[in-house]
C-alpha cells in the first residue's frame, strides 16, 4: 500500500500564474487536451462491467453461489478465530493475502460515492456495484461489532510478503490487529465511519433496515474515533479522516451536530492542507469537494472556505500550470511521486468529475488566474485520464486487465499468477510459489477488470511481477474508476 504523504502548503486559485504567457500556455494545453480526447472510441459500459467484476477476484471468505470469477475459491475461513471473533469476508486490498481495514474502508466509501452520484448511469451494472459495496460493509460491521474496538488488519505483513501462495492455500500467520481506547486510531476509525455512513445512503431505499444498521454503527464508530484521538498510521497532525467521517455523517443524517463539528474543527484539523491529495490515507481534496456541494447549492455559507479549497484543487490539476505536486507524463497521464500512480489518477479524476457535476447544477465555473475552468473542461480532463487507462496512451496498452487486446499479462497478484485450485488441486506451499512469481509466462488466471499501478512518468511500463509499483492492482484504484466509467458509459 502507498503511504500517506503529509505535504503542507495550500494554494488558492488566484495564487497561480496570471501572466499572459502562462495563460496562453494553459489555453493551448487545454485545447490540445480536448482535441486528443476525440480520438477514443471506448466501450465504457464493458469497462464498467469489468471494473466491478474485479472486486469478486479480491473477495476473501466463503464465496457465494453466484460468484462469477470461478477460478477463485473459499479462503481465510478462520480469520478472527485467534481472538474469538468472526472476521471472515471482506477484500484482499491488492496482490497479497492481507486484509487492511484502512484501504478497505476507503474502497467502500468511494464505491458508495460512485453509486450515490453515478448509480443512475450504471444501467444493469448497478446491482453488481451495490453487491460490491455490501461485501465490504458486511465485513466492516463484523470489524466494528465490539464497542470502542475496531479490528483493522488480518494477516502478518512479514510472513505474507515472504511467501507467494494462493489465498486458498494460506498457511501464513493471520494475526489480528485492532484499535481500542488504550491504542486509538482516529484515522482508520474515521474512515470506517465514513464508509458506513456513505454505504447507508446506498441502501437507504434498497434495504432500509440494513441502511439503519450501517448508519447507527457509523455514528457509534465516529464517536469512538473522536473521543479517543490517536494515530494508527504515521501521523495524526491533520486528522483529515475525522472531518471526512463528519462530512459523510452529515450527508447521511442531515444532523446539525455534524455540520457544527466541521465548522468547529476546520482549522484545528487543517482542512486546507494538501489540497490536491486524495487517497486511502489522505482525504483533503475529497473533503473539500464533498462539502462544496452544499455550498454550491446555497445551503452552507459558513462552509465557503471548503469551496475555496476545492477551487484551488481544480486549478492545481490544470495542464499548463506548474505545480510541485502534480505532473503530467508526455502522454498526458496525471503523475504523482510514489508507487501505484493509478490510485492518484482514478481518485483525482473522480473528484474532477464529481465537482464538475456540482458546478454544472449551480451554473458555476472555477477561476484560475486569467483562465476560467468550466464544468465541461473538468469532465474532459477526467475523461482524458480514463481514456489513457483504457488504451489511449503511447504504448497503446489498456491498463485494465481483460479490456482491449493489449493489456498487462504478468500482474503482481498471487491468486492470478498461480495455478487455480481447479487446475492444480494440490497445496502449493509458501516457497513453492516462487517459481511462478519469477516465471516470464503470463498469469494463468485472468483477473478481469484489475487496473494496475501503471506506467512511470515517461509512460514506460514493465509488464513484470517484480515491478510491483507498476504491475500490482488494488481495490482503491478501481473504486473511484467505477463512478467514472458509469458516467462516461451514459455520456460518452
TrEMBL record:
Catalytic activity, EC: 3.2.1.4
GO MF, one annotated term: cellulase activity
Pfam families in the cross-refs: Glyco_hydro_9
Keywords: Carbohydrate metabolism, Cellulose degradation, Glycosidase, Hydrolase, Polysaccharide degradation, Signal
Entry's family note: Belongs to the glycosyl hydrolase 9 (cellulase E) family.
UniProt-annotated catalytic positions: 412, 463, 472
Residue span, Glycoside hydrolase family domain: 44-485
Name of the protein: Endoglucanase
Biological source species: Nepenthes gracilis (Slender pitcher plant)
InterPro entries for this protein: 6-hairpin_glycosidase_sf (IPR008928), 6hp_glycosidase-like_sf (IPR012341), Glyco_hydro_9 (IPR001701), Glyco_hydro_9_Asp/Glu_AS (IPR033126), Glyco_hydro_9_His_AS (IPR018221)
Top EC category: hydrolase
Signal peptide: 1-41
Amino acid at each position: 500500500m502507498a503511504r500517506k504523504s503529509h505535504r503542507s502548503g495550500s494554494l488558492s486559485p488566484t495564487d497561480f500564474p496570471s501572466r499572459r504567457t502562462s495563460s496562453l500556455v494553459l489555453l493551448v494545453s487545454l485545447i490540445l487536451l480536448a482535441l486528443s480526447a476525440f480520438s477514443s472510441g471506448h466501450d465504457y459500459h464493458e469497462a464498467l462491467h469489468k471494473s466491478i467484476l474485479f472486486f469478486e477476484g479480491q473477495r476473501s471468505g466463503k464465496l457465494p453461489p453466484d460468484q462469477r470469477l470461478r477460478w477463485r475459491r473459499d479462503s481465510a475461513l478462520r480469520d478472527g478465530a485467534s481472538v474469538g471473533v468472526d472476521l471472515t469476508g471482506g477484500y484482499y486490498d491488492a496482490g497479497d493475502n492481507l486484509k487492511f481495514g484502512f484501504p478497505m474502508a476507503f474502497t467502500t466509501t468511494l464505491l458508495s460515492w460512485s453509486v450515490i452520484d453515478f448509480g443512475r448511469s450504471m444501467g444493469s451494472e448497478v446491482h453488481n456495484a451495490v453487491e460490491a459495496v455490501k461485501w465490504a460493509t458486511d465485513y466492516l460491521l463484523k470489524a466494528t461489532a465490539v464497542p470502542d474496538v475496531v479490528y483493522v488488519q488480518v494477516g502478518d505483513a512479514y510472513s505474507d510478503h515472504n511467501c507467494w501462495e494462493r489465498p486458498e492455500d494460506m498457511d501464513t500467520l493471520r494475526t489480528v490487529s485492532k484499535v481500542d481506547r488504550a491504542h486509538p486510531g482516529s484515522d482508520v476509525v474515521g474512515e470506517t465511519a465514513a464508509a458506513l455512513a456513505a454505504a447507508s445512503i446506498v441502501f437507504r431505499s434498497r434495504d432500509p433496515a440494513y441502511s439503519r444498521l450501517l448508519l447507527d454503527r457509523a455514528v457509534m464508530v465516529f464517536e469512538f474515533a473522536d473521543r479517543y484521538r490517536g494515530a494508527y498510521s504515521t501521523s495524526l497532525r491533520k486528522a483529515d479522516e475525522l472531518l471526512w467521517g463528519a462530512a459523510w455523517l452529515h450527508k447521511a443524517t442531515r444532523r446539525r451536530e455534524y455540520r457544527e463539528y466541521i465548522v468547529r474543527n476546520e482549522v484545528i484539523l487543517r482542512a486546507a492542507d494538501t489540497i490536491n491529495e486524495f487517497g486511502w490515507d489522505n482525504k483533503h481534496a475529497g473533503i473539500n469537494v464533498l462539502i462544496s456541494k452544499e455550498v454550491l447549492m446555497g445551503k452552507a455559507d459558513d462552509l465557503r472556505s471548503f469551496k475555496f479549497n476545492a477551487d484551488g484543487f481544480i486549478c492545481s490539476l490544470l495542464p499548463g500550470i506548474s505545480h510541485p505536486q502534480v505532473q503530467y507524463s508526455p502522454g498526458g497521464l496525471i503523475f504523482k511521486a510514489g508507487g501505484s500512480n493509478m490510485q492518484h489518477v482514478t481518485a483525482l479524476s473522480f473528484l474532477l468529475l464529481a465537482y464538475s457535476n456540482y458546478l454544472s447544477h449551480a451554473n458555476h465555473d472555477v477561476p484560475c488566474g486569467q483562465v476560467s475552468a468550466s464544468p465541461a473542461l473538468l469532465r474532459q480532463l477526467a475523461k482524458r485520464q480514463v481514456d489513457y487507462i483504457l488504451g489511449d496512451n503511447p504504448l497503446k496498452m489498456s491498463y485494465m486487465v481483460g479490456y482491449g487486446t493489449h493489456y498487462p499479462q504478468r500482474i503482481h497478484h498471487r491468486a492470478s499468477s498461480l495455478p487455480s485450485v481447479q487446475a492444480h488441486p494440490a497445496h502449493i506451499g509458501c516457497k513453492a510459489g516462487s517459481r511462478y512469481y519469477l516465471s516470464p509466462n503470463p498469469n494463468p488466471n485472468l483477473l478481469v477488470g484489475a487496473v494496475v499501478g501503471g506506467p512511470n512518468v515517461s509512460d514506460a511500463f514493465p509488464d513484470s511481477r517484480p515491478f510491483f509499483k507498476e504491475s500490482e492492482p488494488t481495490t482503491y484504484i478501481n473504486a473511484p474508476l467505477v463512478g467514472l466509467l458509469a458516467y462516461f458509459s451514459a455520456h460518452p
